[in-house]
């Protein structure tokens, strides 16, 4: 049984459909490696009865490579390219052709993976939600020159020598660590997906997803890298929604690195340390050691902007649920990690999971370390914690109590943009997805000597004897 992917009501375009029998509906189809048919049902969703089925609609090449997504590689001068096709490795050899415009092109081979129904945990992924995922290919473009525009195409070489090509894409390679250039970063979580044709789908509760996606696309020329910190598709066992999500973000992810997961990555003047909140982060754990190593090994003279991020809120949130618990955080979050943030002077920490926007003051041990709210300078006395999980999914309520460390809250869809102008100046902006306008902002001005300055619990204790 093939599941229904999208649906509309015949009364959407003609409220009198039940009496006239006439209606006109439009659907946007994406290549999912199989034919499509339209079906007419009576009885609604609760008691559907099949009335008629259309002829099949076939893509010119349903196996064609589609939906490329970029990510930073293990080193700053490496770009990972991942895409989807209908070609098994035994049928065609996957690769990426890439290079600088006007110069000789290079080809990098790709690995191929897939999965089958038996690998799924249970229903609906094993039953009505199952759909063949095709094949997922990944290639690594290495030894890139910094901050230069590169062009690329996805290719599959068939056994007869014919090459199936994707369209042409481009990206700008990453700046080298410490490079003094304009660097613009997008941060958000919990976006999900939607349909531009207005159709409905399973798990249709991400009303802001398209607004966020479209605002970022409209500003893409002014964006260098995107971080999506958890809860990507809300597929909930319906495999086709991964294709729908990758198609939705393709204009972004095919052009700039679209970062997900747990990792350490350098981007110019930034060091990003991203944690996995589904695994133990407490002191002594493998992940705690990973986090400390990431924070400790950055050269703040070259990379002054140190950013921590995780999906669940490990520090401060006045979300209704956390407020009811009385913790205002994920259990044992800041108790385990705040001494690391303080010791290594993390500038900003980002979280998703809670579906709204909230910004704290620079805070340590639940106390604001400054009364300033819009411009920060001098020594790093505490970390600014930001919940930015309002990118698309249904919004979360705030607690009725607003703690003293919570200085801006917004119950709406939005995302954050950070702009590093140089080694001493950073601009933070929170933008609403409805209009792309800035509703909260602050600046940081800081010299390297300010990062070196000792503040409470940030330097090793000393005595007269030492």
Automatic annotation (TrEMBL):
- For the keyword Acetylation, the answer is no
Q: What is its EC number?
A: 3.1.3.2
* Database matches in InterPro entries: Calcineurin-like_PHP, Fn3_PAP, Metallo-depent_PP-like, MPP_PAP, PAPs_C, PAPs_N, Purple_acid_Pase-like_N
Q: What is its main location?
A: secreted
Keyword annotations: Glycoprotein, Hydrolase, Secreted, Signal, Zinc
Boundaries of every Purple acid phosphatase C-terminal domain copy: 382-441
A molecular function (GO) term: metal ion binding
Q: Name one GO cellular component term.
A: extracellular region
Key word Cell cycle present: no
Tell me which domain of life the UniProt entry assigns to the organism this sequence originates from. Answer: Eukaryota
Residue ranges of every copy of the Purple acid phosphatase Fn3-like domain listed in the record? 6-61
**Which cofactor does this sequence's record say it needs?**
Zn(2+); Fe cation
Provide the Purple acid phosphatase N-terminal domain boundaries. 68-172
Q: Where is the Calcineurin-like phosphoesterase domain?
A: 251-357
Q: Where in the cell is it found?
A: Secreted
One short Pfam name that applies is Metallophos
Recorded hits in CDD domains, A to Z, give: MPP_PAPs
Reaction catalysis annotation: a phosphate monoester + H2O = an alcohol + phosphate
Gene3D superfamilies per the record? 3.60.21.10, Purple acid phosphatase-like, N-terminal (2.60.40.380)
Quaternary structure, per UniProt, is:
Homodimer.
Q: Which family does it belong to?
A: Belongs to the metallophosphoesterase superfamily. Purple acid phosphatase family.
* UniProt protein name: Purple acid phosphatase
């Amino acid at each position: 049984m093939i599941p229904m992917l999208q649906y509309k009501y015949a009364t959407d375009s003609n409220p009198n459909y039940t009496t006239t029998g006439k209606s006109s509906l439009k659907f946007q189809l994406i290549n999912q490696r199989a034919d499509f048919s339209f079906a007419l049902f009576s009885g609604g969703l609760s008691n559907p009865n099949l009335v008629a089925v259309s002829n099949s609609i076939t893509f010119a090449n349903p196996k064609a490579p589609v939906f490329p997504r970029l990510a930073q590689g293990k080193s700053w001068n490496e770009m990972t390219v991942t895409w989807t096709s209908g070609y098994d490795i035994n049928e065609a050899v996957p690769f990426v052709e890439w290079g600088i415009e006007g110069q000789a092109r290079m080809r990098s081979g790709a690995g191929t993976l897939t999965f089958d129904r038996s690998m799924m945990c249970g229903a609906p992924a094993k039953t009505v939600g199952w759909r063949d995922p095709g094949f997922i290919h990944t290639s690594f473009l290495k030894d890139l020159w910094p901050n230069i525009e590169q062009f690329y195409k996805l290719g599959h070489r068939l056994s007869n020598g014919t090459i199936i090509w994707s369209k042409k894409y481009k990206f700008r390679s990453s700046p080298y660590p410490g490079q003094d250039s304009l660097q613009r970063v997008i941060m958000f979580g919990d976006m999900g997906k939607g349909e531009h044709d207005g159709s409905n789908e399973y798990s249709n509760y991400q009303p802001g997803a398209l607004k966020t996606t479209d605002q970022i696309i409209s500003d893409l020329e002014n964006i260098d890298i995107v971080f999506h910190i958890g809860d990507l598709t809300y597929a909930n066992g319906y495999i086709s929604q991964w294709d729908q999500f990758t198609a939705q973000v393709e204009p972004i992810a095919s052009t700039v690195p679209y970062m997900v997961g747990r990792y350490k990555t350098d981007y110019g003047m930034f060091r990003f340390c991203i944690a996995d909140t589904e695994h133990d982060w407490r002191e002594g754990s493998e992940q705690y050691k990973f986090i400390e190593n990431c924070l400790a090994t950055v050269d703040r003279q070259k990379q002054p902007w140190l950013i921590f991020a995780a999906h669940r809120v490990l520090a401060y949130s006045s979300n209704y649920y956390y407020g009811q618990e009385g913790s205002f955080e994920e259990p044992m979050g800041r108790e385990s990690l705040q001494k690391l943030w303080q010791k290594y002077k993390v500038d900003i920490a980002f979280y998703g999971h809670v579906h709204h926007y909230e910004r704290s003051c620079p805070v340590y041990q639940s106390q604001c370390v400054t009364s300033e709210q819009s411009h920060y300078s001098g020594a790093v006395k505490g970390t600014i914690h930001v919940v930015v999980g309002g990118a698309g999914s249904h919004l979360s309520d705030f607690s009725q109590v607003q703690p003293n460390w919570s200085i801006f809250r917004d119950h709406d869809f939005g995302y954050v943009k950070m702009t590093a102008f140089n080694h001493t100046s950073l601009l933070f902006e929170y933008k609403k997805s409805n209009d792309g306008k800035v509703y909260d902002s602050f600046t940081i001005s800081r010299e390297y000597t300010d990062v070196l300055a000792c503040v409470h619990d940030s330097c090793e204790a000393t005595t007269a004897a030492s």
